[in-house]
Amino acid sequence: MEGLCERPRKLIHRELRSQLLDTVTYSRNTHKARSSRLIPLPTDIKETHEPLNAVQGLTISAELTC
């Protein structure tokens, strides 16, 4: 029976705020969980080129001779 004398607008805003807080918390937790599973992005040009140099790419001419 809490808030029986309160304005309807105040009651509605209180409920919306509590639901919004739950939604924001859920959204942040979901983002944190997803981002923790991803590998970190390279921070400099050296880290970017290391995996590319490790992969032996084939050119069109090399594929044709095989």
What does this structure look like?
By secondary structure, the chain is mainly alpha-helical. It has one domain (8-65). 70% of the residues lie in helices and 0% in strands. The chain has helices at residues 8-37, 45-54, 60-65. The relative contact order is 0.06.
Largest β sheet strand count, sense and barrel closure:
none
Q: Give the count of structural domains.
A: 1
Distance between the termini: 81 Å
| Chain-averaged pLDDT | 77
Key attributes of the depicted protein:
66 residues; mainly alpha; rod-shaped
Compose a concise summary of this entry.
The chain is built from 3 helices and no strands. The chain has 66 residues and is mainly alpha-helical. It has one domain (8-65).
